[in-house]
Amino acid sequence: MTRLLASPAYRLVLASFLWSFGGNLVYFFLNFHLEALGFGRQAIGLAQALLLFTGVVFALPLAYLIPRVGYLRSLHLAFLLAVGSGLLLGLGLLVFPSLAGYGLAGALLQGAAAPLMARLVPPGRRVALFSLQAALTTASGFFSTLLAGFLSEWVGARWVLLFALPFFLMAVPLVLGLPEGEGQAPRFRGRFGVWLRLLLPQVVIGLGAGLVIPFLNLFLKEKFGLTYGATGLVFALSSLATGLAMLLQPLLVRRVGKLGAIVLVQALSLPFLALLAWAPWLPVVTLALL
Q1: Where is the Major facilitator superfamily (MFS) profile domain positioned along the sequence (predicted)?
Q2: Which of 3.40.50.620, 3.30.360.10, 1.20.1250.20, 3.30.420.10 would CATH assign to domain 1-124+156-179?
Q3: What is the C-alpha separation between 161 and 52, in angstroms, rounded?
Q4: What pLDDT band is residue 88 in, cutting at 50, 70 and 90?
């Protein structure tokens, strides 16, 4: 373990795991937390919209600013914002400003962590390190949703989000003192066509997912009368299935190609989405969610 922590890249991977653990806990339980604070469905929808809107508004400015400010400084600012906003949000204070701050922290992290990782490892090791990071992120989703369900039964839904803070704080020492690595700032000019082809499908998919995913936990809990713990178990199983599917991605890409794999996976998701909405049995809905 000491040898691993001596490597800047592995320290960043571990910090990413801890951040993901806390972030997944917030992501899964935010609706229930707001409900426990007395917010209605419309206010919860506005809260989710604000969280996502903050990321959208700041994405392009941060893409320009982060390389100039520094990836490491941007990470430090992201952790500071996450801890401060998470504390206020967990206590039920200044909820909407806290959500805006938390959304900005997430945008900073996404814009700084991946480029910093790429600068810390040689090209030949990047696939392995990013794959490890993705696997640990998926594992964090499994365990954090289980933990959130357990904590809600123990301390009540009102206080669960505060338990994300220790994971954010444990990540801070791991990123302190990391080198900036070597590399050049990304070039955005002259690539409009490439960026359009990359972003447009994601925008369309995101519009559809944004209508469903943020409210799926509330929907399942109310439709089937689940406890917080049972809802957490269902979503934990979904995270586990996602991790297993990631292991099959290389095989699928070899058989149908990168574009074919994307189209196939998106097409297969449609009937399962219909099952989530209309199937009257929890086992079927759980299978569809997987």
Answers
A1: 78-290
A2: 1.20.1250.20
A3: 18
A4: very high
